[in-house]
Write a structure and sequence with these properties.
- With 602 residues, the protein is α+β, with helices and mostly antiparallel strands.
- The chain has a 9-stranded antiparallel β-sheet, covered by helices on one side. Strands 23-24-25-26-27-28-29-30 form an 8-stranded antiparallel β-sheet, with helices on one face. Strands 1, 2, 6 and 11 form a 4-stranded mixed β-sheet that branches.
- Strand 8 and strand 9 form a beta hairpin.
- The longest helix has 19 residues.
- The radius of gyration is 35 Å and the shape is elongated.
- The two termini are 58 Å apart.
- 34% of the residues are buried.
Length: 602
């Protein structure tokens, strides 16, 4: 409560007038109190600027909105007698050519409009950029916490872009005597990048892309201003020559890229307007904008040659008792956190136990979760803290919070908060493209003589391993393991792409038993099987094929996974059968390829 009252006290003043006061029998009426909201308009201090409080948020001056012209020292007192909490609204100041006077530099050279976000009473070129950033990144539905975070991000961005302190961005820099902020603000105004009027202000906030005319002009001007700020001592700004002069030509744009030649580093190339290191290669094409030997993608500050590769974001393992605040505190200490582009994409994680975990982030905020190919329902959102929140299918019970902390070299490293165990750790994922089918790899496959139902070529176990290694090259794969084969797990070819008419289904029970079902275009044939781990990455399945009441043959099938997307598993199969005895090399067998997946429950 004290904080709120303090904010009001700084901006509001009251003037009490007694109406109808007299002696004798004259009635003394109740005093009428006028309440004023006091703000300042600053480049230098600006007098005779038109100032109003934008109550309806339309960026236009309306008849019912408080209006006043600024006076000496840029002070404007808005009558807010009938307005509750005026500090919740943005303030606008229209600087008018031929009317507005800069107390430091005389009459202004052009029309422009400035603003300050709600709660701020200093209207400056810097506050205008903060307010525009906020407007570009909000739609009015944000919570108080989210709005505060966006405002702070805007302050951080403006401070970074121009090389000044964050505390100077929303300040009266003239009163504080801060030379760097004063220099920056004057050059912003001189560069004529600020909107000319209310309508242009609306156009500016409608497009937040890096290639919008306004954002390109701001980037060009800020780069030139920052270069001077970074090489000038604070006490020397009084004598520092301006980067931009109001007399400069801001109408000529030789390459038509929306950036005037006066701001454009490469005014003959419409695709470039910045060249931070001055090497003649624009920033869009230059892989190292500041020429510090560190590629921009891994440079903590791509525009500062004194700053190189950023430190890895370290999230420390906390086995139990951690809170969400603890998780966010660890993230807050990171130098750089990559953006998460999740909507419409899928990621996969392969555990040390060779199990797979895959999430698909649908646009409707459903997130099917596949554990070893078995589907579970999840709901996803990006919460107010900027974290990926994963809920169970009810959409209410939190499962995990996750934040991407490293995306170099194709590795997607996430910091993770597990709600059930109150633990913090990291997981490594890889992007997967589910639009690309997982197909069988047919290297060294035996082929089949369909008249005799025997292989056309017999292969050895070593050739099987050779084919597995060859097929796995360059692909994402896991391995069969007891961890992968969970109790009662079923894998089938029934949903495979471009498979033959026959369908093979393996059901793995936890005790090493199982059931094998095959269908060669007729009815299902169900036979018992057993399974064991033959090697670290190969499962051995022993199947007894029954013909009537007699044992027809026993097949020893060896299965290895050679590619996966977390749903489908491309598998190489090597089979030795008693039916092959006497038909060739005793060590030989049949080698073929297939695609297995977990069948739908229905």
């Amino acid at each position: 409560m004290k904080k709120k009252l303090l904010v009001v006290a700084l901006g509001l003043s009251s003037s009490i007038a007694l109406v109808g006061c007299g002696s004798g029998g004259d009635e003394i009426q109740d005093p009428v109190t006028s309440v004023f909201y006091t703000v300042k308009v600053i480049d230098g201090y600006l007098k005779n600027a038109q100032v109003w409080l934008d109550i309806d948020g339309d960026k236009q001056l309306d008849s019912n909105e408080p209006l006043v012209f600024s006076g000496d020292s840029g002070i404007a007192k808005l009558d807010v007698t009938n307005i509750v909490s005026p500090e919740q609204y943005s303030i606008y100041a229209k600087v008018i050519f031929g009317q507005t006077i800069d107390e430091d530099n005389g009459a202004v050279a052009s029309d422009y409009i400035m603003s300050a976000p709600p709660g701020e009473t200093d209207i400056t070129p810097l506050s205008t950029l903060v307010d525009i950033y906020i407007e570009q990144n909000t739609d009015g539905t944000e919570s108080v916490a989210v709005l505060a975070a966006i405002k702070q991000a805007a302050i951080d961005k403006v401070a970074y872009d121009f090389g000044i302190q964050e505390t100077d961005v929303l300040s009266d820099y003239i009163a504080s005597g801060t030379g760097s902020a004063t220099f920056v603000a004057e050059n912003i105004a001189n560069s004529q990048i600020l909107p000319d009027d209310e309508n242009e202000f609306i156009v500016v906030i409608a497009d937040n892309s890096d290639t919008s005319t306004f954002n390109k002009q701001v980037a060009a001007a800020s780069g030139m201003i920052k270069a001077v700020v970074g090489t000038t001592a604070e006490e020397d700004f009084d004598t520092q020559a301006a980067v931009f002069d109001s007399e400069d030509d801001y109408d000529t744009d030789s390459d038509g890229d929306g950036v005037p030649d006066a701001l454009d580093a490469l005014d003959d190339d419409a695709s470039e307007w910045l060249d931070t290191d001055g090497d003649g290669i624009g920033n869009n094409a230059d892989p190292d904008d500041d020429d510090d030997g560190v590629e921009d993608s891994i440079d903590a500050d791509p525009l500062d040659p004194t700053v190189g590769e950023y430190d890895d974001c370290v999230v420390n393992y906390t086995p139990t008792g951690a809170s969400i605040d603890d998780f966010n505190a660890q993230l807050a200490s990171c130098d750089l956190i990559p953006e998460m582009d999740l909507a419409g994409n899928s990621i996969i994680r392969i555990l040390d136990s060779d199990q797979t975990r895959m999430y698909t982030f649908n646009l409707d905020n459903t997130a099917p979760f596949y554990q070893n190919g078995v589907q579970y329902n999840r709901i996803w959102e990006i919460n107010d803290d900027g974290n990926l929140a994963l809920y169970y299918g009810d959409g209410l019970t939190l499962d995990y919070l996750m934040r991407l902390i490293d995306d170099t070299e194709g590795n997607l490293k996430f910091g993770v908060y597990a709600n059930s165990s109150q633990s913090i750790y990291t997981w490594n994922f890889t992007d997967v493209d589910l639009s690309v089918d997982i197909l069988a790899c047919e290297d060294l496959d035996s082929g089949r003589n369909y008249e005799t139902d025997l292989p056309l070529a017999y292969r050895s176990y070593d050739e099987f391993k050779q084919a597995v290694t060859s097929c796995q090259a360059g692909k994402l794969f896991t391995a069969f393991s007891t961890g992968f084969i969970s109790s009662g797990m079923t894998l089938t070819t029934s949903d495979a792409v471009s498979q033959a008419d026959d369908v093979d289904t393996y059901q793995f029970n936890e005790n090493g038993s199982g059931v094998f079902t095959y269908n060669e275009g007729a009815d299902d044939i169900i036979v018992p099987m057993t399974w064991t781990m033959h090697e670290d990455d190969v499962v051995k399945v022993v199947i007894d094929y029954i013909d009537g009441d007699s044992l027809a043959q026993t097949a020893h099938n060896y299965l290895a996974i050679i590619e996966t997307n977390g749903i489908d598993y491309s598998v190489k199969v090597f089979s030795r059968s008693t039916a092959f005895e006497g038909l060739g090399d005793a060590a030989g067998g049949d080698l073929w390829s297939t695609v297995l997946n977990v069948p739908d429950d229905d």
